[in-house]
Amino acid sequence: MIRPIVKDVFFLGQKSEEAAQQDLAVGTDLQDTLTANRDRCVGMAANMIGVKKRIIIVNAGFVNLVMYNPVLLKRDTPYEAEEGCLSLEGVRKTTRYQNIAVEYLDPGWKKHREKFSGWTAQIIQHELNHLDGIII
């Protein structure tokens, strides 16, 4: 289901709770909502559609990757970036890291540990910030 984008900074500023298998449908809603906004969006966190669960979706080139309970394990090579967000107006400067390692569960509830770099790493960091109530 395509969900409306939350713009309430009080709600977005709250930390998200662990996701459980009964939250799998939220990942589907994130996919539908990201697809509906693909002309102006490359990733989303569940709180952006009104659900305070640790679930994100990231456009990783040719596939949309849904991550349940993602955890940033490592990061290196900081740089300054400018980012926008569907939940906010305009763009803001922030520090991101060129290379990251993330642990997460996929929709089959299988654990993964993966390394990401460049643009995909930047998107993941933005969405992980959302889960922690950090808005650029």
Commentary on this structure:
With 136 residues, the chain is α+β, with helices and mostly antiparallel strands. Helix content is 23%, strand content 38%. A five-stranded antiparallel beta sheet has the order 1-2-3-4-5.
How do the helices and strands line up, and which of them pair or pack?
Layout (H helix, E strand, L loop, with lengths): L8 H4 L11 H13 L6 E3 L9 E5 L4 E21 L6 E15 L5 E7 H14 L5
Antiparallel strand pairs: 1-2, 2-3, 3-4, 4-5
Task: Detail the poorly predicted runs.
Answer: none
Assembly state (oligomeric): single chain
Average the pLDDT over all residues and give the rounded result: 96
CATH architecture identity: Alpha-Beta Complex
What is the C-alpha radius of gyration, as a whole number of Å? 14 Å
In short:
The chain is α+β, with helices and mostly antiparallel strands and 136 residues long. It contains three helices and five strands; from the N terminus they run ααβββββα.
Features:
single chain, 136 residues, alpha+beta, Peptide Deformylase, 5-stranded antiparallel β-sheet, 3 helices, 5 strands, 23% helix, globular
